[in-house]
Amino acid sequence: MLKIKRVPTVVSNYQKDEAADESVGCGRNCLGACCINGARLPLYACKNLEKSREKIVVSHEAEEPPVAFLESLVLGEWEDRFQRGLFRYDVTACETKVIPGKYGFVAQLNEGRHLKKRPTEFRVDKVLQSFDGSKFNFTKVGQEELLFQFEAGEDGQVQFFPCMPLDPENSFSVVAINVSPIEYGHVLLIPRVLDCLPQRIDHKSLLLAVHMAAEAANPYFRLGYNSLGAFATINHLHFQAYYLAMPFPLERAPTKKMITTVSGVKISELLNYPVRSLLFEGGSSMQDLSDTVSDACVCLQNNNIPFNILIADCGRQIFVMPQCYAEKQALGEVSPEVLETQVNPAVWEISGHMVLKRKEDYEGASEENAWRLLAEASLSEERFKEVNTLIFEAIGCSDQEEDLEGTIVHQQIPNGGVNQKSNRIHGGPITNGTASECIVLQ
Amino acid sequence: MSLAEESSDSVFTEKEEEEESFNRRYTLWIKEALDELPHNFTITDPFLSGHPIVFASLGFLKMTGYSRAEVIGRNGKFFQGPKTNRRSIMEIREAIREERSVQVSLLNYRKSGSPFWMLFHMIPVFGRDDGKVINFVAVQVPISGRDHHHRKLTSVGDDVSSLDHSELVFGSCRREVCFGNFVQHQDHRALPVECDDDEQGLEDWEYCEASESEKLRAAEAINNVLSVLTRYSELSGRLVCGKRCCLRGVDCLSSSLVISLGRIKQSFVLTNPCIPDMPIIYASDAFLTLTGYKRHEVLGQNCRFLSGVDTDSSVLYEMKECILKGQSCTVQILNYSNRKDKSTFWNLLHISPVRNASGKTAYFVGVQVEASCRNTESKELRPETKQLSVVGAVRVAVRSSFMVTC
Q1: How large is the ipTM?
Q2: Which residue numbers delimit the PAC domain (chain B) (predicted)?
Q3: Disulfide engineering: A192 pairs with which of A171, A407, A414, B218, CB 3.0-4.6 Å?
Q4: How far apart are CA A41 and CA A55, in angstroms?
Q5: Please, is B53 exposed, middle or buried when counting C-beta atoms within 10 Å of its C-beta (0-12, 13-18, 19+)?
């Protein structure tokens, strides 16, 4: 058994108490049956994307758009928790800078973010793992860490209810604070929290996340996702989001179009970026875009390929980044200098926002170092091509051709061929053909 | 119809302000002089809320089909549409944020709704004495794409040398670096010159490269506009120039910070605790409306001008203590307005220290809520949440307003 030591990030004030978990009664004001009676939160039901799409497309923005309602809600509630001292540290007191260079990687010196903890087990070699109620999950967070309920509304209008009861019968989704924030406003979106979904992408949940990005109406508010094996810390379905008013290096990378699907979703690959990634955009509706990405992610999950997702540009651009850092780490293939920084390349790091624990790493931060770290997470070119083929098959665009003059040409390859191919690649790490079991000590 | 007729009172005062500041910098004759130039261009003011256009040339109006009144006060995004390339939009936004120039091909839309490609070339114009960005000037040169646009790969492949430019979306890295990689291909490949007269296809082009002569025309136009601005700024004594001649002063906010702050529609001020007497360095439009003062009357002043005879001095003391300790607080304080009726109002004031990227406190934010206005409409955010959201938005704006060293 391969073992690697990893220090996770604490996202909830109750995560530390994991050991003293199973107690009688609670007193923590959590979301369990013990405390949920009478609990209330504001509810934000966002406008139905389809019904309001007309408006989005047709209206030209007359000016720098004013702070949107959802943004005010997130920032106002976050500031409230901030002033109440619910965060483990003041993230705005952490020095941050843009690293000079082509891409503008952002570095932050944050010595307080990572906490030493007793080792627990968390398999890093399996992207799909069942929910384990005995481990920390979001039903155990204190209600004061929750900001509001969020749902995809039915209407063409936003609906807001300042004080809506939490109804355990009616599967609700919540937005919570991340008590170890990377930046001001760092929140977690937890779809259908009481359903205890494991950390894996499904169509409905990704669509909810895309709704949130669109609703925030601010290109500097992105949502991110880490699969298991790609540095998700908690196996309970959640997305993260925060504000950073500058473009991520990932968003700046040049792209090359690969194919366009029948529903008009354009898929491009990134060029000149340390982590080989795909960009999904377009589509005849936001749902088309979201569903196409979900199809791709489900494919990755089923093939045990860890990945990260970045939802950017108000939900118009979705990046999918398959990675293999954890596996490389377990096999001892990551360079020691990179390992020493103890930076795990999760979605924000891959996007170009590096949170550094040691002063020397921060002082010496360079585009070269950042590049080198991220490159370790990337799939090889060959492996990336294999993975793309898998994805394109899964979304129904196998053996794509360049599109000519607006028409899209697909060729479906016979099913037999498809299955054989995917079996060969299934679960295989990059170096050899055997899937080794690895355990990460935390 | 004209913008003024559609708009509410607050927009009207904005227009006055924008006229005023443009004329004060360049004198009343500037508009005539600019109207004599044949080019298509717009001039924007990043210090006005919404970063609006304050001048649009006749050529620009002709190109887009709008009247002057329909354009003045709009943000440049007004001319973008669903098929405008998102990367190009980001590139422009970043150039504004970093206060530098940019040149990019862009798909815009006329009043009729029909799209057209143009080469967009924008530069910042700096105040010579304070290093602040006074305006952005943007020139638009329509391009036909004859030389180079979407198309034609005979073979599918990852062979980099056979990459068709048009399929590549240029990242918004520094242009010179980006182009460094690709210009070579452009020169070495003998690309077929596509002559596409069909306008219908152009909305779907991935990119539309401008010819060398079109680029030169853009550069020439920029220089001409800049000359006129420089010349007329000499007349008023408030000189501008195309390059930053001095470091932006400590109490001068960057234009990008001002643009971000301009998105916040509530009443608030930023004060600088590091400067003697903690002056106001930013005041939102809503603050000016609430208090009845003009911007130039409040900038540089300590907030005490809002206090008067009946203002509780113990409350003032409490605030002072919080500021010294670097803490937030909320107080209810009687303020004296400069509105026509010179009325007093109860101000539910929240103040909080705000850090910048260095992690140190750079400003204090003060958010004013007129007590009588605290309606608890059921479908709105609680007043406390609204007030705190201003603090949050200011924190994000201030923290993010650190720039790439050029």
Answers
A1: 0.83
A2: 100-155, 327-383
A3: A171
A4: 29
A5: buried
Contacts of A70 (CB under 8 A, 6+ apart): A44, A46, A158, A212, A215, A216, A217
- Tokens 């398999």 belong to A123
Q: Which among A137, A122, A142, A116 has a CA at the least distance from the CA of A39?
A: A142
Instruction: Flag whether A442 is in a domain.
Output: no
Residue A300 belongs to a domain: yes
Q: Do B74 and A62 touch (CB under 8 A)?
A: yes
Contact indicator for B297, B287 with CB cutoff of 8 Å: no
In a domain, A260, yes or no: yes
Token pair 């089909």 is found at: B65
Domain containing A17: what range? 3-417+425-437
> Which token pair is B85?
């390339």
**Which residues is A267 bridged to in the sheet?**
A259, A280
The answer to the question of residue A223 being in a domain is: yes
DSSP A402: -
CA distance A365 to A112: 18
φ/ψ region of B327 (left if φ > 0, alpha if ψ in -120 to 50, else beta) reads: beta
Residue A63 sits at the chain B interface (C-beta within 8 Å): yes
Cβ contact, residue pair A94, B50, below 8 Å: no
Judged by CB atoms closer than 8 Å, whether chains meet at A92 and B169 is answered as: no
Tell me the pairing of strands A353-356 and A106-109.
Answer: parallel
Rounded Cα distance, A385 and B358, in Å: 42
Domain at A190, CATH number: 3.30.428.70
Two structure tokens written together for B95: 């150039």
Select from A92, A99, A221, A270 the residue whose CB has the most chain B CBs within 10 Å, as the one to mutate to test that interface.
Answer: A92
Domain total in chain A: 1
Stretch (H or E) spanning B295: helix B295-298
Encode chain B (406 residues) as per-residue pLDDT tens digits.
Answer: 333 333 334 444 556 666 777 888 888 888 999 999 999 999 999 988 889 999 999 999 999 999 999 999 899 989 998 888 888 999 999 899 889 999 999 999 999 999 999 999 999 999 888 888 999 999 999 998 665 555 433 223 333 333 344 445 544 443 333 333 333 333 333 333 343 444 557 887 878 888 899 999 999 999 999 999 999 888 887 888 888 877 766 557 888 899 999 999 999 999 999 989 999 999 999 999 999 999 989 999 999 999 999 999 999 999 999 999 999 999 999 999 999 898 999 999 999 999 999 999 999 999 999 987 666 666 788 889 999 999 999 999 999 886 433 2
Distance CA A130, CA A122 (A): 12
Which residues lie across from A270 on neighbouring strands?
A255
Q: What's the start-to-end Cα distance of chain B, in Å?
A: 43
Token pair of B327, please? Answer: 């803490």
Structure-block tokens of residue A418: 């498809």
What residue type is assigned to position A284 of the chain? S
Residue B148 identity? H
Of B51, B86, B392, Cβ closest to residue A75 = B392
Got the DSSP string for A43-84?
EEEEPPHHHHHHHHHHPPP-SSPPPPHHHHHHHHHHHHHHHT
